[in-house]
């Protein structure tokens, strides 16, 4: 837990090069899993309110990472789409566990696509609630804006404009010699993002 009001949670890596730090891949997993769990719950589940709060906490952690990244010149996102154009939606890839600075700038698409997909699950899970969570409209907007940010800064068109490839991140990769990482490709998530944006109202 980073903060209590609003609840802000981070996933701290336990080993490897990111040990004791937060990486966007781990935080993205947290958003994805908490969103899926919330979407899987029955409306009368006695633990649903807790699921709603946990999802919100991980979203706020992600948002804080994006805020920190947006004031860093190395984010490689020339256009900002979140929070009415004041925040670049996709955070850098590595942070201290307190989320009080940034260690690794430049976004990573594997964590980003998981986070966006998790936001979509979370929003859809509560969309029909008579009384929606306090975070509903904010996350609804962030999911849409983040999908746009992903397309603009983590994919790149071919020289003919007929094809598009996922980069290694906002700062690296594409059709050049840096190439791309096949493990970053997530066709199912791309379809979720496409359908969400196609049905989005109020943009």
UniProtKB/TrEMBL annotation:
InterPro entries registered for this protein in UniProt: 6-hairpin_glycosidase_sf (IPR008928), 6hp_glycosidase-like_sf (IPR012341)
Any single GO BP term: carbohydrate metabolic process
Protein known as: Cellulase
Organism annotation: Helicotheca tamesis
């Amino acid at each position: 837990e980073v903060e209590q009001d609003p609840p802000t949670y981070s996933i701290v890596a336990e080993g490897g090069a990111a040990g004791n730090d937060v990486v966007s891949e781990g935080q993205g997993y947290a958003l994805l899993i908490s969103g899926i769990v919330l979407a899987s719950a029955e409306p009368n589940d006695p633990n649903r309110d807790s699921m709603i709060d946990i999802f919100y906490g991980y979203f706020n952690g992600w948002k804080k990472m994006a805020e920190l990244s947006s004031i860093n010149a190395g984010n490689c996102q020339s256009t900002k789409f979140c929070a009415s154009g004041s925040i670049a939606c996709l955070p850098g890839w590595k942070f201290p566990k307190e989320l009080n600075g940034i260690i690794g700038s430049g976004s990573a698409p594997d964590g980003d696509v998981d986070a966006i997909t998790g936001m979509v699950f979370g929003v859809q899970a509560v969309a029909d609630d008579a009384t929606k969570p306090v975070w509903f409209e904010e996350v609804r907007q962030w999911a849409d804006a983040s999908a746009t940010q992903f397309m603009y800064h983590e994919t790149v068109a071919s020289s003919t404009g007929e094809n598009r490839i996922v980069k290694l991140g906002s700062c690296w990769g594409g059709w050049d010699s840096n190439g791309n990482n096949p493990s970053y490709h997530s066709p199912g998530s791309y379809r979720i993002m496409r359908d969400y944006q196609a049905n989005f109202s109020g943009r």
